[in-house]
Structures are given as C-alpha cells and as structure tokens.
Amino acid sequence: MKSTPPENCAVSREELFQFLAETPFARIYNVVLQSFEVGKCTLIIPFDESLERPGGIVAGSVLMTAADVAMWLAIMTKLGTEVMAVTTEISTNFLRSAKREEVHCTARVVKFGKSLIFGVAECVNPAGKRLAHHTITYIRLDK
Fold first, then answer.
1. pLDDT classification of 143: cutoffs 50, 70, 90
2. Within a domain: 6
C-alpha cells in the first residue's frame, strides 16, 4: 500500500526511496531517508569504515554529501523528481568530528527563487551534538 505524502508535498515516501535506490552515489553512502515534509528532509548516513579518515574520524566529505543529498531531496518535496536542480555552492563549517558513528542530517529550503534555491543543513551525531552547519545554493536547470 502506498503511503500518503505530507500535504502539498510533490513526492511520496516511496518515490524518494526509489530515487535514492536508483542514484548510484547515494548507494555508495547507504543513505537512509528518515523523514520529510515540504521543503525539509532528514536522512541518515550509517557509519562504515570505508568512510573514515585516519584516527577513526568520519571524513568531512561525508558530512558535505549528507547535506547536499538532504537538500536535493528537500527540493524534490516541493518541485517533484522531474525538475533538474544542481548544487552551485555549498559552504560548510565543521564544528566537531564524527567518530565511528552514523551522521544524521536535516536540510531545509529557506527560499525558492525563480532560478536559485537557498537552504541550510545541519549534521548531528546520534546524540544530537552538532557536527557541521551548511549553507547551500542550488540552481534550477529547467528555467
């Protein structure tokens, strides 16, 4: 049975799951969709030793990918899966290291412009401690 998407949401949970399953780079990180609503998405990247740098620290690129994918999905909740939007800028402030633990990331769209989409994302560890703060800009290629 298909679940009902949140009110005014352009995608269902099944569509987002399918999109993640069919996207090769999302499979590399084993991205798990946790929750979503219009303009917002939370996902988890499970810990895997292949994502570590020396010292047992999850690589910073994993946190940046988490933010980018969460924002991508948050955009889809408003525009659907057919609209092509890509990252034009991401700025990351690393606040603490993730040490052999999964990464939770929530992205929220701040503004949908005609061509540009602005958002923020925050990565936390399972205890809720902030790992990174991101500002992200996407551009719609269909405009």
1. low
2. no
Could you tell me the CATH number of the domain that includes residue 58? Answer: 3.10.129.10
Q: How far apart are CA 93 and CA 95, in angstroms?
A: 6
Conformational region of residue 100, where left means phi above 0, alpha means psi within -120 to 50, and beta covers everything else: left
Cβ–Cβ under 8 Å, residues 66 and 43: yes
| Overall average pLDDT of the 42-59 stretch | 95
Residue 101 CA, chain-centre distance (Å), reads 17
pLDDT digits 0-9 by tens, 113-135: 999 999 999 999 999 999 999 99
CA distance 143 to 134: 25
Q: Which of 51, 43, 46 is nearest to 122 (CA)?
A: 43
Q: Which of 95, 59, 96, 75 is nearest to 139 (CA)?
A: 75
Does residue 5 lie in a domain region?
Answer: no
Range of the domain at 25: 13-140
Number of domains the chain is built from: 1
| pLDDT one-digit tens code per residue, 12-46 | 999 999 999 999 988 999 999 999 999 999 999 99
Contact of 65 with 24, CB cutoff 8 Å: no
